[in-house]
Design goal:
Chain B: One of its GO terms (biological process) is transmembrane transport. The complex is a heterodimer of chains A (308) and B (278). Chain A is an all-alpha fold and 308 residues long. Chain A is built from 14 helices and no strands. The longest helix of chain A has 40 residues, at 10-49. Chain A is flat, with a radius of gyration of 26 Å. In chain A, 42% of the residues are buried. With 278 residues, chain B is mostly helical. Chain B contains 12 helices and no strands. Chain B has helices at residues 10-37, 41-44, 58-65, 69-101, 107-117, 122-136, 142-166, 170-178, 183-212, 215-220, 228-233, 243-272. In chain B, helix 4 (69-101) packs parallel to helix 7 and helix 8 (170-178) packs antiparallel against helix 9. The chains are: A mainly alpha (308), B mainly alpha (278). The interface between A and B is large, with 118 and 111 residues.
């Protein structure tokens, strides 16, 4: 702002500034209104339904339900198992994708023959439709008789495993990790390549060893990038659906029923709007617990940007 | 990190080979899908996998023609992802512009609020949206799906575009203001051309996310507005029957996006990191 006062009187500048600010508000309005209508209003309605008697199969049962829906939910063992499955998927997939993502990023940060092509091949799974991922793994890799893994097991004289029947949750986590490791790798690789060279030079001149370099420059810099990976991945892992829908349909039993699948079934198989809405509110609260930690980073990053 | 310069050492070569092994292992399921799509059903479904066979386009022909087939769904996928991206852009650019160049006290709050809406899981709004759509006759309707995809991608798009705008020196806008340019002129003539690469990668990401989306399309559409995700998901019940056809349909569904993704990977990632990577 200071630069423009040198060219015109301060009062004039302030006036112009004010005139520009007013339409700026209108520029923001459409996006905010759209999000309000499509996200916040439905969220309010979900909250409302969660306190109502509402089942599409029983149209005569209406009115306020008090906390009945919530007490039905909290006494349903499937809800608790869905919560556990959701958390297991998020935490295990986060650990695997970030771990392998970091290892792969360090590997691809080095120069080697055909690195560009190799990296391009390695990131491809991220762009594959999750529905397709489910079908590839379920049929062509995990199938107990005709799958490639079964063939590989027989080749080494082992008994093939029926992955989706005996290790259903592990299988789901493998599929999700296969899709998202490339994302973590790509972001971390970009982070590695944008390391502040001048700072690295400076500490090297100061005679810092590799460990110091890693500890004081690489880690803080990658930390920020890592935060972004964890935030975006959490958003998507909390809502995993396609991989489960196309492979196990939440089974066997309820072994792979996560919260989205639980709500999906409650709505479209049991038509129980009230209880499903209560479960949906549970899913929103869970997501917000993650959000509190992660949004703080985004807000922090915002303030850092003010110093440009 | 400086080890990257020691190319010829034994360890360097070993790590290079490891890099290739990783790449091939990660890509393998896709390669196998591609291979299977050129097989006959009998060859696709064998106890001992066939690596060498006479390639045939038979499965592609079936996938393309049978039962309304690929094109119906591909058209819906293309329309919903392209139109929702354009809608998103129309809503995003002015909003990000206002926040990047005319920040107020509430700008920080608005931005964080927008990102936080991304933390409302789709299931959190599924039921009301389904019921309202049912009443408004928007179920199995392309426009209903387009609106959902726009809302789904809007927070990420605003953030990406905002971070690209933030990299443009504010002085440029101030200079244009002083020269008497209207806000519209400044935006379209000065800022948008500079932000073009950023806008392009934002659009690509929105396109990819919408094309690959499956939750909304599975719950909200049935046939007339069904996208490729619904088409592919319909193969889930035909387990063990039509692997070659399923593979051909899958290849046709992921090929455009995988290729698009390959071209845009770097720019996309940069925008997605919310300014953490320059």
């Amino acid at each position: 702002m200071a630069s423009m006062t040198t060219r015109s009187p301060a009062a004039d500048a302030a006036k112009r500034e004010k005139a520009k600010r007013a339409p700026a508000k209108w520029l923001l309005a459409p996006a905010v209104i759209f999000l309000l209508v499509w996200m916040i209003v439905p969220l309010g309605m979900t909250l409302y339904y969660s306190f109502r008697n509402y089942n599409l199969m029983m149209p005569t049962m209406t009115g306020w339900a008090g906390i009945t829906n919530y007490s039905i939910l909290f006494t349903d063992p499937t809800f608790w198992s869905a919560l556990k499955v959701t958390l297991l998927i998020v935490l295990c997939s986060l650990i695997i994708t970030v771990g392998f993502g970091l290892a792969f990023a360090l590997l691809f940060h080095r120069n080697f023959f055909g690195r560009g092509v190799a990296r391009t091949l390695a990131v491809a799974p991220f762009f594959v439709m999750p529905v397709v991922t489910g079908l590839i793994w379920k049929n062509m890799l995990f199938h107990p008789a005709f799958g490639l893994l079964a063939w590989l097991f027989r080749l080494f004289g082992a008994t093939p495993i029926d992955w989706l029947a005996h290790f259903p949750l592990t299988s789901i986590i493998i599929m999700i990790s296969w899709e998202w490791t490339p994302f973590a790798m790509l972001v971390l690789l970009t982070g590695l390549q944008s390391l502040p060279e001048d700072q690295l030079e400076a500490v090297r001149l100061d005679g810092a060893n590799k460990w110091h370099e890693f500890r004081h420059i690489v880690v803080p810099h990658l930390g920020q990038v890592l935060y972004v990976v964890v935030m975006l991945e959490s958003i998507f892992f909390l809502t995993s659906f396609a991989e489960i829908y196309t492979t196990t349909s939440g089974g066997p039993g309820t072994a792979t029923t996560n919260l989205p699948y639980y709500i999906f079934q409650g709505t479209f198989a049991q038509y129980d709007i009230g209880t499903s809405s209560a479960a949906a509110i549970g899913a929103v609260i869970l997501a917000n617990i993650f959000a509190i930690f992660l949004i703080r980073f985004v807000a922090g990053n915002l303030n850092a940007g003010e110093n440009r | 990190m400086s080890t990257a310069t020691r190319k010829t050492s034994f360890g360097g070569i070993a790590l290079g080979i490891l890099g290739w092994i990783v790449a091939l292992l990660m890509f393998f399921p896709i390669a196998w899908l591609l291979l299977t799509s050129f097989k006959t059903e009998a060859e696709a479904f064998t106890i001992t996998p066939h690596l060498f066979f006479t390639p045939t386009l038979q499965s592609f022909e079936t996938a393309l023609s049978q039962g309304g087939g690929y094109w119906h769904y591909a058209w819906n996928s293309a329309v919903t992802s392209v139109v929702s991206t354009l809608f998103g852009l129309v809503l995003t650019v002015p909003a990000a512009y206002a926040m990047a160049f005319y920040p107020s006290k509430r700008t920080d709050f608005t931005l964080v609020w927008m990102v936080s809406t991304k933390f409302i899981p789709a299931v959190g709004v599924l039921i009301p949206i389904f019921l309202v759509y049912k009443n408004l006759d928007l179920l199995d309707n392309v426009w209903g799906l387009i609106a959902l995809y726009t809302a789904m991608n809007l927070p990420i798009m605003v953030w990406m575009v905002y971070s690209y705008f933030r990299d443009i020196p504010k002085d440029l806008v101030e200079a244009a203001d002083i020269d008497g340019a209207s806000m519209m002129q400044t935006m379209t003539r000065v800022i948008l051309p500079l932000a073009m690469p950023g806008l392009a990668s934002t659009c690509l990401l929105a396109l990819i996310l919408a094309w690959n989306e499956s939750f909304w399309s599975i719950t909200m559409t049935n046939h007339s507005a069904a996208t490729l995700a619904v088409f592919i998901a319909s193969f889930k019940s035909a387990e063990g029957l039509f692997w070659a056809k399923m593979s051909a349909a899958s290849v046709l569904s992921i090929a455009p996006i995988v290729v698009l993704g390959w071209f845009a990977q770097r720019q996309m990632v940069r925008g997605l990191t919310f300014g953490a990577v320059k």
